[in-house]
Amino acid sequence: MDKFRPTILRKHISTLGEQFRKMREDANLSLKEVASQTKIDFSLLAKIERNQRQATKEQVRQIAFFYNIDEKNLLKELLSDQLAYKMIEEKADVDVFKVAEEKIEYLKANKNGK
Fold it and tell me: Cα(97)–Cα(83) distance, rounded to whole angstroms?
């Protein structure tokens, strides 16, 4: 089977699962075909596409390999989904991101001081 090179566009906000579905539909593939080729359980992949489950890093890698696209961009999308869901779950204010950004800079600057 030929590899597909769908384009992930960030013109509008979407979850990683929604992006998976769009890539699949753009390639005119069935859920069954993608599940079979990526070795991701059919029902699990369906739940990921419907935002009922979050993908794992390994599943993201499998999708990236299957579509021959940059894994790094998909992993960035995965992390942003995880952060967004955690913020909603904790009912946290977006100011938390500013504090986290400062801590990241602090930790990067002091990582050699362990």
Answer: 10
